[in-house]
């Protein structure tokens, strides 16, 4: 495994791989890797000749009052996990390497319809930062496939659209959310939670589970799904609880079309997000099987 810091080295390695007829799978991350990232890496490993993992805490996707400076970082541990998972290249550039002219530089702005709801409403500029950095990674690596987690559901919608609009010849592979056995979605930010906050955070997967079950009751409407979920969140500071159309991200008006129930809520000072596709597997049932998959 090689650790690359310079964009020129990335281009060299990517060109060599292509000349050798190997496909490249790219897993973009902000590091502090956990079993959710690892599942993406393992999938990339299984599906490509070469696997690149980027580890970059991207300043342009954090708002001025957000946690960029204190976002958890542990490069040694990340490198060990990547090595063990059979990664070929870890790309861990400095901020100056990716943004040599400072910020903001040239930006990739996703269409408004995908960024006004859910996290977009509360994190202005966030998805522009995400789309911009991922576009740069695509331009540098030219991956055949890029791997993203459905834990960040709105991000996957934004990036699918970005790749299509900017004509990147890359297949986006979207992978299910990996959870702890008690249902909490893995997140680098879980490290911020003390034991009581972590316990309180379990209300989120329970709310998703309740909404998912309510959607299975004959004749259920979106309002009933939202009410069933909301009952579990009474003790929490909820930023949003929304049921949206999977593709347009607009509020779901009936349950006849694929819909996603999504939550952002604070446990203590930590903002957590999670979601479930109502036509997919139950979030709490998934927890057990996902654990098996990454054990
Ligand atoms: P991050 O490092 O938080 O930017 O995440 C990097 C990638 O890992 C993104 O595509 C995330 O959606 C994905 N990811 C984060 N947490 C999970 C999880 N619990 N299960 C699956 N994928 C995840």
Walkthrough of the structure:
The chain has 295 residues and is α/β, with parallel strands linked by helices. The chain folds into two domains: 2-175, HUPs (Rossmann fold, 3-Layer(aba) Sandwich); 188-292, Pantoate--beta-alanine Ligase, Chain: A,domain 2 (2-Layer Sandwich), CATH 3.30.1300. The protein has helices at residues 7-19, 35-47, 75-84, 95-98, 112-115, 118-122, 126-141, 153-165, 195-201, 203-214, 222-230, 283-294; strands at 2-4, 24-29, 50-55, 89-91, 145-149, 171-175, 237-245, 259-267, 270-277. α7 (126-141) packs across α8 (153-165) and α10 (203-214) runs antiparallel to α11 (222-230). It is globular. The two termini are 23 Å apart. Residues 29-30, 36-37, 39-40, 148-149, 151-152, 175, 177-178, 185-188 line the site of adenosine monophosphate. The site of adenosine monophosphate (AMP) has 17 residues, from α2 and β5.
Proportion of residues in β-strands: 15-25%
CATH architecture title of the largest domain: 3-Layer(aba) Sandwich
Quaternary structure of the protein: single chain
The unique ligands bound to this protein are:
adenosine monophosphate
Shape: globular
Q: How is the main sheet built?
A: 6 strands, parallel
Residue share in helix? 40-55%
CATH topology of the largest domain: Rossmann fold
Number of domain units: 2
CATH class term of the largest domain: Alpha Beta
CATH superfamily of the largest domain: HUPs
Strand order of the largest sheet: 1-4-3-2-5-6
Low-confidence stretches: 291-295
């Amino acid at each position: 495994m090689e650790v690359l810091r310079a964009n020129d080295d990335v281009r060299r390695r990517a060109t060599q791989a292509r000349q050798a007829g190997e496909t490249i799978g790219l897993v973009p991350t902000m590091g502090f890797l956990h079993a959710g990232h690892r599942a993406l890496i393992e999938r990339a490993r299984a599906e490509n000749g070469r696997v690149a993992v980027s580890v970059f805490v991207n300043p342009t996707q954090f708002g001025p009052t957000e946690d960029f400076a204190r976002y958890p970082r542990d490069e040694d541990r990340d490198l060990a996990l990547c090595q063990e998972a059979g990664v070929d290249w870890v790309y861990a550039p400095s901020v100056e390497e990716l943004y040599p002219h400072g910020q903001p530089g040239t930006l990739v702005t996703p269409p408004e319809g995908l960024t006004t709801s859910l996290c977009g409403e509360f994190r202005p500029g966030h998805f522009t930062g995400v789309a911009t950095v991922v576009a740069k990674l695509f331009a540098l690596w030219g991956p055949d496939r890029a791997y993203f987690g459905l834990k960040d559901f709105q991000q996957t919608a934004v990036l699918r659209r970005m790749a299509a609009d900017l004509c990147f010849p890359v297949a986006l592979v979207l992978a299910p959310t990996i959870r702890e056995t008690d249902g909490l979605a893995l997140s680098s930010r879980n490290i911020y939670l003390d034991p009581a906050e972590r316990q309180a955070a379990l209300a989120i997967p329970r709310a998703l589970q309740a909404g998912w079950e309510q959607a299975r009751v004959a004749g259920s409407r979106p309002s009933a799904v939202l009410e069933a979920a909301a009952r579990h969140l009474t003790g929490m500071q909820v930023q949003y609880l929304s049921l949206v159309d999977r593709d347009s991200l607009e509020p779901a008006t009936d349950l006849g079309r694929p819909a996603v129930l999504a939550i952002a809520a604070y446990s203590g000072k930590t903002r957590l997000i999670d979601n479930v596709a109502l036509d997919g597997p139950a979030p709490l049932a998934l927890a057990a099987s996902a654990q098996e998959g990454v054990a």
